[in-house]
Prior knowledge:
single chain; alpha+beta; four-stranded antiparallel β-sheet; three-stranded antiparallel β-sheet; 4 helices; 7 strands; 28% helix
Amino acid sequence: MKNIVLLLFFVLGSSCGDGMNQLKNDRFYSNAFEEQLKNNDLVMIDLSTTDEDWDSIIVLRPYTDIDLLEDELSLNLSNISLNRITTDDTINLFVFLKENKSVKIIEMSRVLGDFNNYDTIISKKDAKFKKTKNGLEFVK
Length: 140
């Protein structure tokens, strides 16, 4: 009987393993960005000045195939592989990278706009985006 119980715990633990290491939406930043973008017509958000430990960012569009993107851009996105961006068309996903590995994510409502440069790695020093009449775009 003990062996069956131990085997059950092992099977349950190993089948849930991938979901346990997944990054979660940083609601503090998500809410702050959305509030700024809702309240102003033309606003710039400068991510380059944050104290967070990351070196680049990429914004993923709805229905992004994370495995394919990982291969195309030589990234390690395993800790966001189960994110709802793969099936949800209501959000864009900001993925903060450190040495090509995802370290933080922010889910942003698409009601605020879409980006003109999805799936492009932007260095931290260039991580400034603004809201325009055509949507959201990174500026240099």
